[in-house]
Amino acid sequence: MAGTRVRIKGLVQGVGFRPFVWRLALEEGVKGRVLNDAEGVLVLTWGRDEAIRRFLERLEAEAPPLARIDRVSIEPATDLPEPHTDAFRIVESAPGPAATGIVPDAATCPQCLKEVFDPASRRYGYAFTNCTHCGPRFSIVRAIPYDRENTAMACFRMCEQCQAEYDAPENRRFHAQPNACPQCGPGVWYEENGRAIGEGDPIEQAALRLRQGEVVAVKGLGGFHLAASAWLPEAVRRLRARKRRPDKPLALMARDLEQARTFCEFGALEASLLESSAAPVVLLKQLADPGLAGEIAPGQDRYGVMLPYTPLHHLLMAQLPGPIVLTSGNLSEEPQAIDNMDARNRLGGIADGFLMHDRAIVNRLDDSVAGIRIGKPAVFRRARGYAPAPFRLHGAFTAAPRILAMGGDLKAAFCLLRDGEAVMSQHMGDLENRRALRDFEDNLSLYREIHDFEPERIAVDCHPDYLSARLGRNLAEETGIGLVEVQHHHAHLGACLAEARVEPGADETLAIVLDGSGYGRDGTVWGGELLTGGYRGFERTGHFLPVALPGGGAAVREPWRNLTAHLIAAFGPGYRSKLAGTGLEELLSEKNLPVMERMIEKRLNSPLSSSAGRLFDAVAAALGVCFDRQSYEGQTGAALEALAGPYLERESGYPVAVSSGRPVVLSWAPFWEALLSDLKKGVCAGRISARAHLGLLDSLSSVSAQLAGEREVNRIVLSGGAMQNRILAEGLHRRLIACGFSVLVPREFPVNDGGLSLGQAAVAGMLSCQDGDP
């Protein structure tokens, strides 16, 4: 007989792991005990060597569906007293410094869903049915260990039947912290004008209002949503007007895969993503005639679609004839409401009624957004269902100090790095919004408290005016903690290397990083970059030609300004002579071009930018797309991608000039010459967009292959917000793979600025390890 101490780390709390261990121990005849503590799960065993060997083999092979085992350490335990009984026991959680991960919220499992729609079940029609395989996790947790008293369920005392389930190791609700039923758990009601409507089923009342074309605020898992019937154009227009969201696509919820296929086309990979426990919004190709309101995704060829992920959503969708718009419960760009009173105050002018409940949302979580890119799932917004599950990095990062990385100001998310793991926060939006900034600060305090995290280094973006960077600098100054500034595009490179667990020291890589803007080493705005390097540094080996941004931030919002700047950069002061017969002469004549030209000439509020995003703006404006203004970030790029799709296979790209020096500079005079010629010929916008995309693909793939070959680099990274463009990402990947390169693209974290903090943490971690600095 021998004793063994087994430490399991990873996502192993709140997923039914202890009863799973208990059942294995009974089956294999192993004695001992299992408990949760701040590091994960601890198993103390006593038994014959062969029994313990089988027990340990099955421990990893048969883990529960929501569990993720990162590390199992096993050591003999000679100090364990032999148990006096044959029992294997589950014992109470042990306190201590937090080191374990929190499991993300999980969509309703098939077993719970069956109960919800089974008239014979005591949970029939109950909107908060859950078990250890599904339900709320991070959205309700206040502290680790993940026990009921540390969650929003602490105020709901379980009835005798629920308590019996909770106490029975053989039951799938054993220690399911949100366990409840209609007799003892949270309840749902429908209200209008602050007054509950007491008659009838509240979910049925909400469904009736939706069928009548009204807007209903629905309290979900991580926040409130605004719902409207997707088949009623007037309802969608009403929602857009009230929410002040004129153009940005709205997410849809479908009852099931069958209903989703009535307006989208997709395959097995997308279906698997839709039905996964994360249940993200998935980008799907629209059918030619989807039969839904045209106002849902104007100018796009894809819908963002999700399936119901709570019993409440399932019950609501079962009473509706078609899909609904389900968008964040906020005014445009604000964080979504999570508190009932706050929702009444902020959404009262948008929603006609409210479907409410009384389970508190502790942690705000937007819906995650994902899709299939290059044949595999990729996350574009990481929130509900994914956050805050940690990333396990390369083993070298275990030597790095504890890093707090602050991320960027757009698509804000921070990152905690310790013991070789990176914990990324959920997406929090644009920090220029006051409510979003406060949310960022509150979440930062919460994560540090939950994870008992005291940083030894703070990593920030180099931009002097980023609010996230200011917060980091202030914290470093107040505490005396070392500060590491990480260049924006270097962070994009570092994030890709970190996710792929590339070994430091073998990390030399060429990165193609295309985005809207990032503060460059030379003080200009970068955004179309070819970098060569790794975690500890980089060289700018190529970039797009810097072009003026007349009006600074105004040029980001008004694409015609970028068109003017690009034409001047391509053709000089006489650029107007190139416009005859293109239709642009008339459009631009309505603008104050002399002022714009003087601003560019004298560099008055016209910083230089190599931005890929601003090139897309200019091309879109030339085609009359968002000529005067774009209402959300990336609108021009998404519209150009949709226009180009049908024509790609039959077109060739516009020429791009490539310099012979180093760094290589890609410039656009021949590109614009060809594009203007096509406008004069009356070539349709879709063909022009396709030729523009293909010109970028031709130039970037050939230049990258050349630079990588010169430096004997075999690995190429594709990153930056512009790589959300499917044509660019898939086209570059296909061409570079064909040239024999290993190509990395982000999968588990967003390719846009939502992944910056991971890259900052990885770069700062390796820089801090350099020359033996711990």
UniProtKB/TrEMBL annotation:
GO molecular function, one term: carboxyl- or carbamoyltransferase activity
Span of domain Acylphosphatase-like: 3-92
Domain YrdC-like: residue ranges: 200-385
Enzyme class: ligase
SUPFAM superfamilies: Acylphosphatase/BLUF domain-like (SSF54975), YrdC/RibB (SSF55821)
Catalytic reactions of this protein: C-terminal L-cysteinyl-[HypE protein] + carbamoyl phosphate + ATP + H2O = C-terminal S-carboxamide-L-cysteinyl-[HypE protein] + AMP + phosphate + diphosphate + H(+); an acyl phosphate + H2O = a carboxylate + phosphate + H(+)
This enzyme's EC code(s): 6.2.-.-
InterPro entries reported for this sequence: Acylphosphatase-like_dom, Acylphosphatase-like_dom_sf, Acylphosphatase_CS, Carbamoyltrans_HypF-like, Carbamoyltransferase_HypF, DHBP_synth_RibB-like_a/b_dom, HypF_C, HypF_C_2
Pathway: Protein modification; [NiFe] hydrogenase maturation
Alphabetic keyword roster: Hydrolase, Ligase, Metal-binding, Zinc, Zinc-finger
Keyword Zinc listed: yes
Active-site residue numbers: 18, 36
PROSITE patterns cross-referenced by the UniProt entry: ACYLPHOSPHATASE_1, ACYLPHOSPHATASE_3, YRDC
Residues annotated as transmembrane: none
Domain of life: Bacteria
Xref: Pfam families: Acylphosphatase, HypF_C, HypF_C_2, Sua5_yciO_yrdC, zf-HYPF
GO biological-process terms attached to the record: protein maturation
Function summary: Involved in the maturation of [NiFe] hydrogenases. Along with HypE, it catalyzes the synthesis of the CN ligands of the active site iron of [NiFe]-hydrogenases. HypF functions as a carbamoyl transferase using carbamoylphosphate as a substrate and transferring the carboxamido moiety in an ATP-dependent reaction to the thiolate of the C-terminal cysteine of HypE yielding a protein-S-carboxamide.
Similarity field: Belongs to the carbamoyltransferase HypF family.
Protein name per its UniProtKB record: Carbamoyltransferase HypF
